Each structure stands twice: as C-alpha cells, then as structure tokens.
Amino acid sequence: MFRTIFKKLTPINFYWLIFLIPILSVGSQLPLKLQVIFWLLIIVWLATYFIIYLSRGWLTLSAIWLQLGLDAIFSLWLGYPYLFIFTGFFIGSERLEKKSRLSLVGGYYLLAMGLYIGAMLTLKEGNLYEALINGLFIILSLPVAYYSSEQRRRHIQIVQDNERLTYIVKKAERERIAQELHDNLGQSFSVLALKAELAKKLAVKDPALASQQLDDIAKTARADLDLVREIVAGLRKDLLVQTLAQESINLKLAKIGLKTDGEKTALNWSEDIQELLAQVIKEVSTNCIRHSGARDLTLIFSQDETNYYLKASDDGQGFKTDLSKETYGLSGIQKRVASFGGEVSFRNQGGAVIELSLPKKG
C-alpha cells in the first residue's frame, strides 16, 4: 500500500516542504504544552498536503478546505500567514469543478488577505517591506499556479495529439507499403511460381525450353529485387513534411516557435530536393536550439524558373564570429548544398540568417 502511495509522489512534492522550516522554527520555541498542540496541527496539515496530491474528488476538496482552516489558525495564533501560499497553489493547480473552485477562491482571498492585513498591522516598520513581498506571493500564488497548470495540461495534450498523429502516419505508411508490395510483387510472384512449375515439367521433355523458363525466372527475380530496393530506399528518405513535424516538436520543447511560408508548395518538390532540404532543416533546427537563444525560427520556401530557395532565420543572437563553422554545423550544410550544385550564404541580421538556392535539374 505504502509503495503504491509513494510511487504517486515525486521528489518535488517533498521539496516544497522545505518552506515549512520557518514555521517549525517558530513552533519549537513555544511552551511544551502548546508545542503538543502545534505538532498535532502540523501533522494534520501535512496529512492534508499529501491527501490533496494523492486523492481526487470530494476528498481533495475537503482536504483543501481543512488546510485553509489550518492556515487561518496558524496565522491568528502565530502571526504566520504564509502557509496560504501552499493552499493557493493547490486551488490554482488542482482539477476542480467550477463551483468548487470559485468557492475556494473566494474563501482563500477572504481568509488569507484578511488575516494577512491583520498580521501586517502588528508588524514593526522594519519588517513591512519583507511582509509586502510575502504578501505578493500570497496574492499571486493562486493565479500563477492556475496558469502553470493550464500550460502543463496543454503541453500534455499536444504531446498526446502528436503521438496519435505519429501512430496514424505510421499506420497509413504501413498500409501504403503493403498495398505497393501487393500491387507490384504479388502478380510477379504468381508468375514466378507458374514458370517454376512449367520448367520442372519441361526439364525432361524439353530441356531447352525449361532453360528458357529458368532464365525468365532469374530475370524477373532480379527485377523484383530492384523494385524492393527502390521501395526500401524510398522508406529511408526523410521527406520534408516528416522533418518539419519532428523539428516542430523538438523546437517546441526548447520553447522555440516554428513558422513556415510556402510549405505547401515545397511539399510538391521532387523527393531528392525534399530529402536534401530535410537534412539542412535538421541542422538549422539543432543550431537554433543549441546556440541561438531565439524565440522563433522562420523557414521560407520559394522557387522561380531555375531554382528552389530556402531562407532560414531566427530572432536570436546570431552567429558568433569567434566560433568555427563546425560549431554551428554550417560546414555540413555547405557540403550538402554544394553536392547538389547549389549555393548557400550565412549572415547576421536581427539573428542568424541562412539562405540557399538549389538548381532545378532537367
């Protein structure tokens, strides 16, 4: 039972308890009889703390209300209102019904701010500044916790959506491969089987014709092998849409947005162009995550009668002149583009800018 409970808790749940040290210090200085009451209340408060993390529904709601009451007791008794910060985070971050949340928010601010103002009136002048700072924590803990919780839920939802999309794409790809193999190889294997049976029957009666059938079998088998290699080679290629989807996730994890222009047009470019651009975009994305400090990466795809173009720019710190091209992976981009007969340039302009052009062949 206890193993199951502790599995649900994370190190951060215990880390926050460090901030109980000030009130524990205050309580340890009370007379012995009052210390007994103090420690009993602390144990109950800790119980509510873990119940809120581990339970759901009415039990969570009850624990938050009880903790709110204990916060008020500690505030009135010891002049220590800062436990409200914990409860504020719980109210903001827990999944609660709208009515329950509204009642808790109202109760929180009425109790916390009323008692906090009362505590401030009893403070000496020298402690007012510190009290004001702590008061801001009490006021802001609830909305900050709510915002952080919503962001975390959105992130989880995005990750789940991406996982579902990845599964759908993989499933569609498997179905496409199965269909392609069936269409291209199914009939060919049937012909091979028939020719093999015919060659077996003719081996004694007409060896010359049997030999011709075997030659046909070998020729067809080689053609099928080439076809399989072609299909496998196509599977190994990183096309643009796959790379953009993956790099969008990688950049998002680094809190960098990905913007594109002309993407739909680029998805119709030839596979060899898409494969090369996919490799370049991987290098650009990696560079942006590691070195740029940017908030956004923008990719602009365009073309004219003779060339394909890609412009990659970010709003970060740009290229540092004291670092080599290898540091940024730029030499790899240069080699790839040069191998295709293209050109590439690197410059700083409100961030790093990489522009490349690739000739249209044929």
UniProtKB/TrEMBL annotation:
Pfam families referenced in this protein's UniProt entry, alphabetically: HATPase_c (PF02518), HisKA_3 (PF07730)
Q: Which residues cross the membrane?
A: 12-30, 37-58, 64-90, 102-122, 128-147
| Lineage start | Bacteria, Bacillati, Bacillota, Bacilli, Lactobacillales
| GO CC annotations on file | membrane
Please report the organism this UniProt entry assigns to the protein.
Ligilactobacillus agilis
Enzyme class per UniProt: transferase
> Which keywords label this protein?
Kinase, Membrane, Transferase, Transmembrane, Transmembrane helix, Two-component regulatory system
Question: What name appears for this protein in its UniProt entry?
Answer: histidine kinase
Known catalysed reaction(s)? ATP + protein L-histidine = ADP + protein N-phospho-L-histidine
Report the residue ranges that make up the Histidine kinase/HSP90-like ATPase domain in this protein.
272-362
Supply the EC number(s): 2.7.13.3
Tell me where on the tree of life, at the top rank, the source sits: Bacteria
Which GO molecular function annotations are given, in alphabetical order? phosphorelay sensor kinase activity; protein dimerization activity
